[in-house]
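Notes from hallway chat w/ T.B., transcribed later so I don't forget. T.B. wanted the structure written out for a chain they're using in a teaching module, and asked if we could keep both sequence and structure tokens in one place. Agreed to drop them here.
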Amino acid sequence: MGRRQQETEGLWKPCATLLLITFISCTVVYIVLSPLFKHHPPSSYSSEASSHARFNLTEAHPGKNIKNGQPECCRGRENLELWGKVVKWGSDFKVNTPQECCRACKSTCKEDGECLCNSWVFCGDKKRCGGKFGECWLKQQEDPLYPEEHDSAMVSEWTSGLIFKKGVGIVALETGQGKIHIKLLPDCAPRSVAYMFQLLRLRHCAGCEFYRAEKRGNNWDINGNHISQSSQGPPYALLQGTLEAQGLNFEEIPKETCPSIKRGSVAWVDGGPEFFISLANHDEWDRKYTVFASVLPEDMAIVEEIVELPTQLAIWSGIKVAVLEKQISLRVKRAANVET
């Protein structure tokens, strides 16, 4: 509980009061939102409030590239050159932006889901690219989950991205309750997906687990739609955990595309490694979280099963949350023969 503010004297008192009101308003918003995903280590769950997690409320692309109410996904990773079989030579094909290069790759996808191009490479640094400036190379990776990266000690002038066709880019979160298959979104969150590639190559995920499980309750229906006149939580209709694996140095991931959270969205809390799977359409969390994958609809039943496991009440910075009595270990594995 905050202390009562002391009155001040002088001609600047009205200005000080106005600044104080503004500060308090911003602080209230911060306090209300940030505790929703505050992580406490399993050994220290308690009813005591603790420090807030950092929380950046800035949109990835405020007011730009909006399509059908969602931010457009055509992102790549800077300073990265992907190799692979050439589909279209960049020396004969130049565009103005990496987004145009990405769209050119997507345009090779047919109605049946097949894509001639699954990766693109764009030279956008005018100074370093020289005569190659604007080149857009469309390529085909033999293994999209293990893209062929050009290993160079120098900073690359290239920006590269991946496009996953139907049925490709699916990995499994293996738990004792079953496999939760998720479709990775490299064109929306390329850096996040690159980290998932690291977990796949690590061949283990020691330390990765689910620790918080909140039902839909009477607030959202089976399709994730909010029920009129009901509250926005608690419970908050989510399954939360961490993807920080032992032996792998995790670096905070900058915010990427932040669409509205829908049922099945897999998103980071801040810059990771804590993440959550949403069981509901959380339009009230308007574009605050990087979504890097989505759960296949048929596997949401497993997520629903996990949130029904025994939990205990915890208070995180004044917010009631449901913590699993026994944490659920998980592994990230390649998925085989999965249709979307």
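Follow-up for T.B.: DSSP finds five helices and 17 strands in the chain. Might be a good example for the class.
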